[in-house]
TrEMBL record:
Location of the protein in the cell: Membrane
Keyword terms of this UniProt record: Glycoprotein, Glycosyltransferase, Membrane, Transferase, Transmembrane, Transmembrane helix
GO molecular function: glycosyltransferase activity
Annotated protein name in UniProt: Core-2/I-branching beta-1
Pfam families: Branch (PF02485)
InterPro entries: BC10-like, Glyco_trans_14
Organism: Perilla frutescens var. hirtella (Perilla citriodora)
A GO CC annotation given for this chain: membrane
Region named Disordered: 67-93
Length: 399
């Protein structure tokens, strides 16, 4: 840190030697003046190129902000197209995400996370981040691929992992996943506690005011595009991505329980993939829902599969107008059965990756596109080495 003498000089230099000096000690003031003047001249010289990103960790004093020396330039709320790591700003305290191990109960956490600022403009340059939320049993199997994906994009993403409480493995030192596990509870396939885990992930991610888009992933998910493409796609989207459709028959409307009425009518019952992508507004509504979710907790058990019905039904009932009704996570149901296809080593080749990336047609912000999926599942651990071999070039990771 700076020596004490410097602390005295810096504020004077900040005012470019125009500040009134207290007439206490002439000699020391003269030294300060000369020092301040020299410093001021240096600043004037480097006016344009100087960037004062001095991090004052104790928050005691701030010197110059980048804004004060730059020409008036309103900070963009959304940094798009070529996201650059954020520049350091002051006001660190306001933006600091809370500790992950906060010790709050679920009830306390959801309540705390449901708070939204009433003043819409941020008093600091907020660089919006994507929250990547991994719902896993154990470790994130595809972690080495995700490491490559995240590389060079620090400050534009946050990671949260909800794994089975019995999982006691630890992430490698230096891994982006290290220390990103949240306090978790047990999850069973098809049980409503799966949705509780999703809400727990959302609530933890909402505590970080910078998180703007929220992506739910499994341990077997992979990205299909590089970070900058995914970042712009999500941040520019005018829609949320919660898959939702009305399906007659036993695995659709057949899972509706009449005791859910009148809060939820049969005609409002929807189905869709659990793997969603949603913005901050919708995420807040989901964790704050005290009307529909309790009905699911009470009546959606047995062969009901809340994870395939709660979000599609809730979002379509309340926020359907802004929803794309599709998910950005590619999956293959072609092999039939209750589980989608799992892809192994020999399935992975550039052609297959291209098919997932651009082999479909859909709408994005009202325009037709063939970029319909940004993520894909389910990939097994033994597919990892071939993914690491092909993905970086097919997906333009390392440019
Ligand atoms: C992790 O849990 C397993 C059993 O689930 C146990 O055998 C192992 O010793 C544990 N490892 C550590 C490091 O605690
Ligand atoms: C997002 O919008 C910005 C400006 O509005 C544009 O420069 C950028 O190309 C857009 N990205 C995508 C993926 O549409
Ligand atoms: C998604 O479904 C809702 C409700 O049916 C509808 O209002 C909305 O327009 C649909 N979204 C798109 C992009 O078609
Ligand atoms: C959609 O397409 C129209 C016409 O091709 C174009 O003017 C518009 O910018 C496109 N919108 C987006 C969001 O890409
Ligand atoms: C990301 O991929 C796109 C093509 O999909 C490419 O044009 C772009 O340069 C890549 N971005 C980076 C940062 O490498």
């Amino acid at each position: 840190m700076l020596p004490d003498a410097m602390k005295n000089i810096f504020p004077a230099a900040g005012k470019r030697a125009n500040s009134p000096f207290p007439l206490v000690n002439l000699i020391s003031n003269l030294i300060f003046f000369v020092f301040g003047l020299t410093f001021g001249i240096i600043i004037c010289f480097h006016y344009k190129s100087f960037s004062f990103n001095l991090q004052v960790t104790n928050g005691q004093f701030s010197i110059f902000t980048t804004q004060s020396s730059a020409p008036q330039q309103p900070p963009p709320r959304v940094a798009l197209s070529s996201p650059a790591p954020p520049t350091t700003t002051n006001h660190v305290e306001l933006q600091k995400p809370p500790r992950l191990m906060h010790g709050m109960s679920d009830e306390e956490l959801l309540w705390r996370a449901s708070m939204a600022p009433k003043i819409e403009e941020f008093p600091f340059e907020r660089v919006p981040k994507i929250a990547f939320m991994f719902l896993t049993r154990g470790e994130v199997v595809m972690a080495p691929l995700w490491e490559k994906f995240f590389k060079g994009n620090q400050g534009l993403y946050s990671i949260y992992v909800h794994s089975d409480p019995s999982f006691n493995g630890s992430e490698k030192e230096g891994s982006v996943f290290r220390g990103r596990r949240i306090a978790s509870k047990e999850v069973q396939w098809g049980n409503v506690n799966m949705v509780e885990a999703e809400r727990r992930l959302l609530a933890n991610a909402l505590l970080d005011i910078s998180n703007q888009y929220f992506v739910l992933l499994s341990e077997s998910c992979i990205p299909l595009y590089n970070f900058s493409t995914i970042y712009s796609y999500l941040m520019n989207s005018t829609h949320t991505f919660v898959e939702s459709y009305d399906l007659p028959g036993p695995v659709g409307r057949g899972r509706y329980n009449h005791r859910m009425g009148p809060t939820i009518a049969l005609g409002q019952w929807r189905k869709g993939s659990q793997w969603f992508q949603m913005d901050r507004n919708l995420a807040l509504e989901v964790i704050a829902d005290k009307t529909y979710f309790p009905v699911f907790q009470k009546y959606c058990n047995g062969p009901c599969y809340a994870d395939e019905h709660y979000l599609p039904t809730f979002v379509t009932m309340k926020f359907g107008g802004r929803n794309a009704n599709r998910t950005l996570t590619w999956v293959d149901w072609a092999r039939g059965g209750p589980h989608p296809s799992k892809f192994i080593r020999t399935d992975v080749n550039p052609g297959f990756l291209e098919k997932m990336r651009s082999g479909s047609s859909c709408e994005y912000n009202g325009n037709k596109t063939n970029v319909c999926f940004l993520f894909a599942r389910k990939f097994t651990y033994n597919a990892l080495d071939r993914l690491l071999r092909f993905a970086p070039s097919v997906m333009h990771f390392n440019k």
